[in-house]
Amino acid sequence: MPETIARLTFWGVRGSTPTVDQATWRYGGNTPCLELVTPSGNLFILDCGTGLRTLGKRWAGSAQAVEADIFVTHYHWDHIQGLPFFAPLYSPKNRFHFYSFCSEFLGAGSLKRVFEAQMASPYFPVNLSAMSAAREFTEMAGGDCRKVGDTQVSTRFLNHPQGCLGYRFETPAGTIVYATDNEPGVPEFDRALRELASGADVLVNDAQFRPEQLAGDRKGWGHSSWLAGVHLAQEAGVRDLVLFHHDPDSSDRAVDGILREARSQFRNTWAASEGMVMTLDGQETQVTIPAVRQGQRREAHFRARIVGVKPDGQTFAVETVIRDLNLNWAFVYLDHEPRLQSELEVVIDNPAGPAAGKSLTLHGNVVRVEPGPDAKQIGVGIVFTE
Ligand SMILES: [Zn+2]
Ligand SMILES: [Zn+2]
Q: How far away, in angstroms, is 134 Cα from ligand 1 center?
């Protein structure tokens, strides 16, 4: 990697609790975990939610030693529950430096106590002594500032039940601010967050609730909204805003809607998505989402008309041909009842006619059987397996 690039990868973006339902699959169901590789190659991990397990799998079977600085915002489950499942912690060749804050509930050595508590009987089957990687712990307070490798790290306390640290990482390729689990509306905390976010290239901000929820029954739960994030980004002069910590009850379509509203007021807004990578080069931020989240693809040749929006906001409409189709599931009515969880084959004719290309043959599993519109028909849900 050239010396002028910082890379931020999202391994977990969901707030409060992991979700596994299909309706949240596209943005992802793992709880907070980000990876930041700084220009000189330092590896930072931000929070230890369930996304940490997936990140840890990268080194499976590798002889390479892992060394990382791990910044934990606070001790709520969704930010620490990946720790016992982070495989590199079980190898003596690896070394981790943890940063967090001294919680008034846990006392000195708060994060160390979290390790002991998470792995205590009867909550976890493996003894703490199996965690053989070297571990160092540093507690930071709000307003602290320290150099870690090539990066200046500073902190502010955020407005969240039992406390939460926001982090600012000033790398030679740009500044990233990680401010999750924060409720706006208390002037001293709002001021601290504006300082933390001031002039940032990328601001990752809590956007769990809709503005109307935040003004209603979710007030006091310690979270923010896309609208508060937009105002903060505008006031602090942020370049790119990332909506983060999606509510477990927000489906992918709900997050799409939140992103649409936010973009109408702040164009450089992104919705954090598992696998999303933001690359900073000192000038601008490139955003990519790897194919791994796109599901299985099938070769096709269907004529289509596409209407969309260009990066500059202009709309376009074009005629084209679909070359690949992402097929996850289908719902059909049949006059035979297939057995639940049995396999079946589906052949889909090319809607443009036989001359336009071949049909698609797919194999799937029956995941749902329900009464159809009349007594003779049965509704069948199919998830395609290959
Ligand atoms: Zn959280
Ligand atoms: Zn929290």
A: 27
DSSP reduced 3-state for 335: coil
CB-neighbour burial class of residue 345 (10 A; exposed 0-12, middle 13-18, buried 19+): exposed
Tally of CA atoms within 13 A in the half-sphere of 17 that contains its CB: 5
Ligand 2: distance of its center to the CA of 181 in Å? 5
The answer, yes or no, to whether residue 168 has pLDDT greater than 80, is yes
Looking at the CA of 247, which ligand is closest?
Answer: 1
Residues 214-226: tens digit of each pLDDT: 999 999 999 999 9
| Residue scoring higher pLDDT (149 or 22) | 149
Query: What spacing in Å lies between the alpha carbon of 160 and ligand 2's midpoint?
Result: 7
Residues 6 or more apart whose Cβ sits within 8 Å of residue 146: 140, 152, 153, 154
104-159 tens-digit pLDDT: 999 999 999 988 899 888 889 998 899 999 999 999 999 999 999 999 999 999 99
Q: How far apart are CA 58 and CA 35, in angstroms?
A: 12
Q: How far is the CA of 142 from the centre of ligand 2 (A)?
A: 16
Closest ligand by atom to 50 CA: 1
- 31 C-alpha to ligand 1 centroid (Å): 8
For residue 1, name the pLDDT band (cuts at 50, 70, 90).
very low
Whole-angstrom CA distances from 204 to 20, 130, 180, 267 are 23, 34, 7, 15
pLDDT recorded at residue 289: 84
Least confident segment among 91-95, 267-271, 326-330: 326-330
In the reported structure, the alpha carbon of residue 246 is separated from the centroid of ligand 1 by a whole-number distance in angstroms of: 9
Cα(157) to centroid of ligand 1, in Å?
A: 15
Ion ligand 1, residues whose Cβ is below 5 A away: 15, 78, 181
Cβ contacts of residue 311 below 8 Å, gap of 6+?
Answer: none
Instruction: List the beta bridge partners of residue 288.
Output: 277
Question: Is the pLDDT at 246 greater than 50, yes or no?
Answer: yes
CA of 39 to the centre of ligand 1 (A): 28
